[in-house]
What we know:
By secondary structure, this protein is an alpha+beta fold. It has helices spanning 2-7, 36-44, 68-92, 133-137, 139-142, 193-301, 306-317, 338-365, and strands spanning 25-27, 33-35, 49-50, 57-58, 118-120, 125-127, 146-147, 167-169, 174-176, 190-192, 372-380, 383-384, 400-403, 411-417, 424-429, 439-440, 447-456, 459-464, 470-472, 480-486, 491-496, 501-506, 516-521, 536-538.
Amino acid sequence: xxxxxxxxxxxxxxxxxxxxxxxxxxxxxxxxxxxxxxxxxxxxxxxxxxxxxxxxxxxxxxxxxxxxxxxxxxxxxxxxxxxxxxxxxxxxxxxxxxxxxxxxxxxxxxxxxxxxxxxxxxxxxxxxxxxxxxxxxxxxxxxxxxxxxxxxxxxxxxxxxxxxxxxxxxxxxxxxxxxxxxxxxxxxxxxxxxxxxxxxxxxxxxxxxxxxxxxxxxxxxxxxxxxxxxxxxxxxxxxxxxxxxxxxxxxxxxxxxxxxxxxxxxxxxxxxxxxxxxxxxxxxxxxxxxxxxxxxxxxxxxxxxxxxxxxxxxxxxxxxxxxxxxxxxxxxxxxxxxxxxxxxxxxxxxxxxxxxxxxxxxxxxxxxxxxxxxxxxxxxxxxxxxxxxxxxxxxxxxxxxxxxxxxxxxxxxxxxxxxxxxxxxxxxxxxxxxxxxxxxxxxxxxxxxxxxxxxxxxxxxxxxxxxxxxxxxxxxxxxxxxxxxxxxxxxxxxxxxxxxxxxxxxxxxxxxxxxxxxxxxxxxxxxxxxxxxxxxxxx
Length: 539
């Protein structure tokens, strides 16, 4: 058998369908040999049974039996080829590279997997240098298509036709085989893989450029955020330092006022004690003198010497030299008003310090100053300024004007001169939507304002409309008011510019729409709404 097999060529042991060494070879009635599985699948996929080689038609499907003679010869040939390959592998495996992670391993190697040199698109397997040799030497295997080693070779085959994916359908954006162009993709725009690859590669280059641009933008954003954090840290450190300085000064001022108060009270007490001690000393001296006189009088009264008694009686009977203590007393010091005066002085000190703080605060917010121009087209003729105690009647209605500028983020500051208006409302607001109805000013309706009504309950009154409204106690009448808004922080603050005092602040606001500087002067005060060709600037 061995000798006979050596006389046969390797092509005689290859199935013409799978182009591999026979596995369970069978012989058709026309005398051609095939793997049993190969010819069975071939006939199953075709309507007619015919020989793949000679095309002889069989009207009745032949019952095929394994040809034991050819099977034994094929097994002998396969064993001989494997021994040869194993021998060659053992002599050269030390020179070949072992497959590393990320590299394609040989599918035939057992034990240590060597690095694959090629992958076969027919066998759907990858081979190292040793196991690749049959594809390079055997004429039947030479016809197989070899490519650089890749993984997942099954993915390169059409699942429907079991053919190599060698075309690209632009219509469906998918890889197809040649048979697909005669069925599902018959009318589609199909090009060779290389052409599709070049088109996609150009798109990838463009995509890569776009991705790099996105990366650069995000890197710039990271730098911007980090810079913002650095500035925030600097601001935080500065605020902490200023806060520590302010509260240290406050603490020192309170401690100094407390020490001065304690020293003053103790000084009064020391004076009282000193006065009492002087009185006591004088009284004790007089008591001592009186006791001495008493002893002399007692001694004289017991004497039997008539002459001595008569001679001494005049001097001893005279009243001793003493002070009249009837109206003399020690009165505890009075402390009424002492604490009030001390607290008042402390208040003056704190007021001076607060003024310095507000001046510094005002300078900071004025850095965000913007020019605001009133829009004569946005005028509300009938607003209602209402607090918890008063509903304005029709005779006191005012006009509300918004600015042309709107703000949706960041910080901004503007100032308004109020000297010529007795009553006014000032702040920021959302867009006026209904021009025909009265407007209730409150944060819930989109108005963050402060108001002045000259005769509110018979007195001059300042208040912040809301639910409920807040009455404001101002020492002086503001002539110029500054408004500062921090959109993200939800803060609206009002400042008296001349006194550098904080009038009121709305905090914790939630802004989601455009904010407009808002002003409402009362009528008959010389207020003029300019024509569209003119501008009214709040300064």
